[in-house]
Design a protein that fits this description.
Blueprint: E1 7-9, H1 10-20, E2 25-28, H2 35-44, E3 49-52, H3 56-70, E4 74-78, H4 82-85, H5 88-96, E5 101-107, H6 123-127, E6 133-137, H7 143-155, E7 161-167, H8 168-172, E8 174-176, H9 196-208, E9 212-216, H10 218-222, H11 226-236, E10 240-242, E11 257-260, H12 267-273, E12 278-282, H13 288-291, E13 302-307, E14 321-324, H14 327-337, H15 344-366, H16 375-385, E15 391-394, H17 398-406, E16 415-416, H18 427-437, E17 443-448, H19 449-454, H20 458-465, E18 469-475, H21 480-489, H22 504-511, E19 514-518, H23 524-533, E20 538-543
Parallel strand pairs: 2-3, 2-4, 4-5, 5-7, 6-7, 9-10, 9-12, 10-11, 12-13, 13-14, 15-16, 15-17, 17-18, 18-20, 19-20
Antiparallel strand pairs: 1-8
Bound molecules: thiamine diphosphate.
Length: 571
């Protein structure tokens, strides 16, 4: 590995740098331009685990799942050209969901760049809009500083994905190994110091509010502020609601946890947000899935917006008080400054609307009274039967929303779902990453029949790695969420949403995972028990009611307080 002059190859230097950054596992797929790095990986032996995915998209979603479950930075490796372009969707997903990922992409040798060489693609230009930072290394002297910057940028402040595109010639070139972990960079100040005057102002507004609400997002999970969130809402008596990405920060049955905001969120927080006189928004970005039409959103409230990324302030909603800072720091200060309060009358209004939602939606969602299985009922039973430490990943669509609504999430980082980009195909590889990061926890992937087929090949990764994940595919024979929108908003014209599926049990079984199918409500309990006790990875296909919908729903563009509890068009 070393030469007489004590220099090592760029490829070997990358391995040592990864080790210095605490990386123990990388997810990837080899090819021409990256072969010297794979050779170094081979020679590194057991010091670095490599998970061989079946498609590069799987590698980045796995790296995301790893990062989301553990709070560490996920790493993936691809070759140049198609290997690197296959990462694009994952990069956009990680960028939208603030996930720290470092991608090492191979590039053709430096002297070939710009010549349309075999498998040459301008990955830097392509990934610029979907990365927090990217760089191309054509000279080996720049390699190690770039890697240390990459890890620093990916994990600090608002985390995000980074690409380091390395020319093949750099992997062969010799370099003196002098890696230094980056602890700061000039002109990049990722964690703003919150203004104490603004925090006092925020506490004063909380203390004087009659109808306050707290909204939280993934920023609370990223900053490790779940405990402080609970302490603040308990002390100040704040009814609180989460974005999809913030779910699991406080337990589902915390009395002040009013559930999820937004399009398929809970009725009470959506409805009553219109009556609130104060919104304390922590680590969330007022996505359109939460606000619907921003001009009608929380019209009667003063808005305090706390976020580590000041560019989120006033992007969608004009905050009356914008505090740039880390959620943990700001919440800790607020806990000291707020006065104990109960807001009993205001909380009672939430309870009333919770009863309305239970009676009109939840009770029927959770009980299969007909001949068909309902997803919600299975998801609630899974959450009751699976161990308390289960990490849940989802794909995109109806089953995702049912999971967000009905899986009782109880510990931070328990739910790993694609929120910002809504990437079908995310859930299965994300589960591989989550299990790799947390081998002692149970990992459950809840997928739709459409999204499962987008990255179905990753079943073989699970088999080869013997990754003990439990997989449930809800087979409704449709691209369910799109079918629902066609029913509600396109007069039931089901354009290209009927899905012809293979025999999933046969396919997955043939790939090497024991598989089982249930299709009637009477089989639910036994099916879940079978999955739970299956030895190693297990696959359960659940044939569900093709007509099942997700309610409530905020129809597109409507004020969130006008969410429908059922399809009002057919009443
Ligand atoms: C890559 C990608 N393509 C298309 C979509 C649009 N889309 C959102 S939900 C959905 C249907 C998902 O169907 P399925 O996986 O069967 O899940 P279900 O809604 O039935 O639970 C589609 C096509 C998407 N989110 N991602």
């Amino acid at each position: 590995m070393t030469t007489e002059s004590n220099q090592i190859s760029g490829a070997d230097a990358i391995m040592l740098a990864l080790q210095a950054e605490g990386v123990e596992t990388v997810f990837g797929y080899p090819g021409g331009a990256i072969m010297p790095l794979y050779d170094a990986l081979f020679r590194f032996g057991t010091r670095m685990k490599h998970v061989l995915v079946r498609h590069e998209q799987g590698s980045i979603h796995a790296a995301q799942g790893f990062a989301r479950a553990s709070g560490k930075t996920g790493v993936c490796i691809s070759t140049s050209g198609p290997g690197a372009t296959n990462l694009l969707t994952g990069l956009a997903d990680a960028y939208a969901d603030s996930t720290p990922v470092v991608c090492l992409t191979g590039q053709v040798s430096a002297h070939l760049i710009g010549s349309d060489a075999f498998q040459e693609a301008d990955i830097l230009s392509m990934t610029t809009p979907v990365t927090k930072w990217n760089t191309r290394i054509t000279q080996v002297k720049d390699l190690l500083p770039a890697l240390s910057h990459a890890f620093y940028i990916a994990r600090t402040g608002r985390p995000g994905p980074v690409v380091v595109d390395v020319a093949k010639s750099v992997l062969f070139a010799l370099v003196t190994y002098d890696y230094k972990i980056c602890t700061g960079m000039p002109s990049y100040h990722p964690v703003p110091v919150p203004d104490p005057k603004k925090i006092r102002q925020a506490a004063d507004w909380i203390n004087r509010s009659k109808r306050p609400m707290l909204f939280w997002g993934q920023g609370v999970l990223l900053s490790g502020a779940s405990n402080e969130l609970g302490l603040l809402i308990d002390k100040a008596g704040l009814p609180a609601a989460s974005t999809l990405m913030g779910l699991s920060a406080i337990p589902a049955d915390h009395p002040l946890n009013m559930g999820m905001l937004g399009m398929h969120g809970n009725y009470a927080p959506n409805l009553l947000s219109a009556k609130a006189d104060l919104i304390v928004a922590v680590g969330m970005r007022f996505s359109d899935r939460v606000t619907s039409d921003p001009s009608t959103f929380v019209k009667n409230a003063r808005i305090i917006h706390i976020d580590i990324d000041a560019s989120e302030h006033d992007k969608v909603l004009q905050a009356h008080l914008a505090i740039a800072g880390d959620a943990l720091t700001v919440l800790k200060s607020l806990i000291d400054l707020v006065e104990p309060a109960m807001h009993a009358g205001w909380i009672a209004e939430f309870r009333k609307q919770q009863e309305v939602e239970a009676g009109r939606v939840i009770d029927s969602d959770l009980s299969c009274t007909g001949e068909q299985i309902l997803m919600g009922a299975v998801i609630r039973k899974l959450s009751e039967r699976f161990p308390a430490d289960t990490i849940v990943t989802t794909d995109i669509g109806q089953h995702q929303m049912k999971t967000a609504r009905y899986y009782k999430l109880n510990f931070p980082r328990q739910l790993i779902t694609s929120g910002g980009l809504g990437t079908m195909g995310f859930g299965l590889p994300a589960a591989i990453g989550a299990k790799t990061a947390c081998p002692d926890k149970t990992v459950l992937a809840l997928l739709g029949d459409g999204g499962f087929q987008m990255n179905i090949q990753e079943i073989m990764t699970i088999v080869q790695e013997n990754t003990d994940v439990k997989i449930v595919v809800f087979n409704n024979g449709y691209l369910g969420m799109v079918r629902q929108w066609q029913e509600l908003f396109f007069e039931s014209r089901y354009a290209s949403t009927v899905l012809m599926n293979p025999d999933f049990v046969k396919v997955v079984d043939a790939m090497g995972i024991s598989s089982h199918r249930i299709s009637s409500p009477s089989e639910i309990d036994a099916g879940i028990e079978w999955l739970l006790t299956s030895d190693g990875p297990g696959f359960l296909e659940v044939v569900t009611d093709p007509a099942e919908n997700v309610f409530p729903i905020v129809p597109p563009g409507a004020p969130v307080s006008e969410m429908w509890l059922e399809n009002i068009n057919i009443k």
